[in-house]
Amino acid sequence: MAHKKGQGSVRNGRDSNAQHRGIKAYAGEYVSTGSIIVRQCGTKFIPGRNVKRAKDDSLFALCNGTVFFDGQSRRVNVKPVEATVPVA
User: Fold this and answer.
1) What is the Cα 81 distance to its own chain's centre?
2) Which residues lie across from 31 on neighbouring strands?
3) Is residue 2 predicted with pLDDT exceeding 90?
4) What is residue 61's three-state secondary structure?
5) What is the pLDDT of residues 30-43, one digit of tens each?
6) What residue ranges carry the coiled-coil annotation (predicted)?
C-alpha cells in the first residue's frame, strides 16, 4: 500500500496579519486631536508636549497642531495651532 499524500492543501499555510507599526505622522505634518502619530511595540519614541501614550504604547495627539521631534529624534511633540480670533 503506497503512502503517497494527495495533492491537497499545504499543512502549515497560515500567516498572521501585518501589524502596520511605525510613524504615521512625520515632522512638519498637521495632526488633529486624537490622531495617532506613532504605532510602536515598546517605548522607542516617548511622548512630549501635547502627546500621550496609549495602552498599547501608541502615541496620539492631545490637540490640533504640527508634529515635531526632539531629543535625538526620540521625543514626539505637537506644536498647537494658534487660534485665529476674528477682529471686530
Assistant:
1) 21
2) 65
3) no
4) strand
5) 999 999 999 999 99
6) none
User: Model's pTM, two decimal places?
Assistant: 0.77
Question: Beta partners for 75?
Answer: 46, 70
CATH number of 22-80: 3.30.1490.20, 2.40.50.100, 2.160.20.10, 3.90.1200.10?
Answer: 2.40.50.100
In 3D space, the residue among 58, 44, 50, 43 whose CA is nearest the CA of residue 77 turns out to be 50
User: Does residue 61 contact residue 35 with C-beta atoms inside 8 Å?
Assistant: yes
Residue 79 neighbours by CB distance under 10 Å? 12
| Domain assignments of the chain as residue spans, ordered by start | 22-80
3-class DSSP assignment, residue 59: strand
Q: Are the C-beta atoms of residues 39 and 22 closer than 8 Å to each other?
A: yes
Place of cell 477682529: 87
Q: What type of residue is 28? A: G
